[in-house]
């Protein structure tokens, strides 16, 4: 659909990680001024705006790879803003169980990704 080489595709997918790094940096700089829930909501809004913009471009017939990937950078940016607050929130409920909370939080993230991946590959009827 986008007519890009595999090298270009690898570069474009890597830009999502750059967005995540920038989001994490921004969260570290401004999170002390906001509640973790506020940062999580802002991160989710940023990610959803990027996805909605990409979907709008695709449905309108604009299929430029650079524009589409520019929109997906917002997904990484939003995730980078969301993750510190969500992890801090998961671990602050019972500080004596912070290690267990971190492990459970990570396991749920991986399990959720696995479920959505399987759901995409084998639709449930």
Number of strand segments: 0
Radius of gyration: 17 Å
Percent of residues in helical segments? over 70%
What global shape is seen? globular
Distance from N terminus to C terminus (CA atoms, Å) equals: 29 Å
Runs in which pLDDT lies below 50 for 5 or more consecutive residues are none
* Number of helical elements: 4
Structural class: mainly alpha
The count of domains is 2
Order of helices and strands: HHHH
How do the strands and helices of this protein lay out in sequence?
Layout: H1 6-30, H2 36-59, H3 65-92, H4 98-121
Describe the structure.
About 80% of the residues lie in helices and about 0% in strands. The chain has about 120 residues and is an all-alpha fold. The mean pLDDT is about 85.
Quick gist of this model?
The protein is mainly α. It has 2 domains: 6-92; 95-125. It has 4 helices and no strands.
Name the features:
single chain; 81% helix; 125 residues; mainly alpha; 2 domains; 0% strand
């Amino acid at each position: 659909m986008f007519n890009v080489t595999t090298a270009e595709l690898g570069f474009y997918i890597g830009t999502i990680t750059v967005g995540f790094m920038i989001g994490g940096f921004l969260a570290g700089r401004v999170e002390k001024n906001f509640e973790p829930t506020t940062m999580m909501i802002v991160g989710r809004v940023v990610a959803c705006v990027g996805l909605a913009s990409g979907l709008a471009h695709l449905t309108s017939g604009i299929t430029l790879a650079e524009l589409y990937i520019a929109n997906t950078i917002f997904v990484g940016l939003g995730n980078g803003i969301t993750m510190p607050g969500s992890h801090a929130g998961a671990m602050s409920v019972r500080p004596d169980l912070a290690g267990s909370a971190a492990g459970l939080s990570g396991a749920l993230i991986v399990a959720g990704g696995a479920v959505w991946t399987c759901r995409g590959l084998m639709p449930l009827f």
